[in-house]
Amino acid sequence: MRAGDSWFTARAGRVRRTIAGLVARTNRLLDAVPGTRSLYERQLFRSLSWTHLDLEVDDQHAGLDGLRFAFLSDLHAGSYLSGAGLERLFALVAELKPDAVLLGGDLVHTRPAEFRLYDRAIERVAPSLGVFAVPGNHERFPGIGLERFHAWALGHGIRVLRNEGTRIGRGRASLWLCGVDDLGEGDPDLGAALAGRNPGEPTLLLSHHPDLFHAAAEHDVRWTLAGHTHGGQVAPFGWMPVRHSKLGFDRGRHRSGGSELYVGRGLGAAIIPLRVHARPEIVVARVGIRRPSDG
Ligand SMILES: [Fe+2]
User: Fold this and answer.
1) H/E element, 29
2) How would you list the strands of the sheet with 164-170, edge to edge?
3) How far is the centre of ligand 1, averaged over its atoms, from the C-alpha of 111 (Å)?
4) Whole-number pLDDT of residue 265
5) How far apart are CA 231 and CA 265, in angstroms?
6) CA dihedral in degrees (50, 261, 131, 129; nearest 10)?
7) Which tens digits make up the pLDDT trace of 31-47?
8) How many A from CA of 3 to the centre of ligand 1?
9) Ligand 1 centroid vs 217 CA: distance in angstroms?
10) 227 CA to middle of ligand 1, Å?
11) What does the CA dihedral 249, 250, 253, 256 come to, rounded to 10 degrees?
12) What is the DSSP letter of 242?
């Protein structure tokens, strides 16, 4: 099933490309204003929040108990986040000792050179299962391109889950960790991401765009982690002048049948170096065993 061919298609058109170009030019102008990075980074570290999610599995998957994932998205490096800021952020993640680090896209903002800002930061984390990433829309910005994203990931030993998955095994238990391309600008293929999954295998999907959730739920994806929305970024008292989800998946937890979506608010900022009532967020997802009384 190619999610991009279904009813929620949002493939890049000329208008979207023009908007992307304008965003890039505006941000490059604002980037040149002295002090914007330090201003944003001060806000980021002052208001950084950690959200803990329980990924419940049945007894038969008990071998997965305690597995922990750190999910970071929308860092928009270079826009208002420097290499030193990224290093500090990844050092905080390393302290948590996650088994895997999951990167949910929009790692860079408008320039390919922004990938280099991660050089020292990525060295800070060495999770036993590795670092995994999916592309966001900014990885496809004019002048960046997916080939640069893939080359950067390869250079750091990061596994890109772009319409593919991998099995994480522990003893006789296993989990299918997979990812899709960006729904807004890319070509997500959920079928390809799930190919190779065993029947009944708990599945964790990474999707930059949250609006893929219903399709994921229809395909028995147990958990989906997404970003893209920045939780509104500027959302005074929950009012969001800019909304990136057409389905109301602006932030936080959503359910559909037995499937769960968590939309992280991300860490960086786009256009302006400011967040209002949309605190930057690192999501820590931990696998636990569902007790019979949990229902
Ligand atoms: Fe973003």
Assistant:
1) helix 14-31
2) 164-170, 173-179, 203-207, 223-226, 259-263, 252-256
3) 14
4) 98
5) 4
6) 100
7) 778 888 999 999 999 99
8) 20
9) 23
10) 7
11) -10
12) S
The phi, psi pair for 89, rounded to 5°, reads -65, -45
Between the CA of 5 and the centroid of ligand 1 the distance, in Å, is 23
Say how far residue 128 (Cα) sits from the centre of its chain: 20
Mean pLDDT of the 244-266 span: 95
Between the CA of 208 and the centroid of ligand 1 the distance, in Å, is 8
Task: Compute, in angstroms, the gap from residue 242 CA to the centroid of ligand 1.
Answer: 12
Q: Which amino acid is at 153?
A: A
Instruction: For the chain, list the domains and their CATH numbers.
Output: 36-294 (3.60.21.10)
- Compute how many other C-beta atoms are within 10 angstroms of the C-beta atom of residue 90: 22
Distance 75 CA to ligand 1 centre (A): 7
| Residues 12 and 184 sit within 8 Å (Cβ to Cβ) | yes
Ligand 1 center from residue 13 Cα (angstroms): 18
174 C-alpha vs ligand 1 centroid, how far in Å?
31
pLDDT surpasses 90 at 176: yes
Dump pLDDT digits (tens) for 193-235.
Answer: 999 999 999 999 999 999 999 999 999 999 999 999 999 999 9
**Total count of residues recorded for the chain:** 295
Which two three-digit tokens encode residue 87?
A: 């290093």
Instruction: Report CA(136)–ligand 1 centroid distance (Å).
Output: 7
CA of 61 to the centre of ligand 1 (A): 34
Q: What single letter denotes the amino acid at residue 128?
A: S
| Whether pLDDT at 1 is above 50 | no
What is the C-alpha separation between 46 and 208, in angstroms, rounded?
Answer: 25
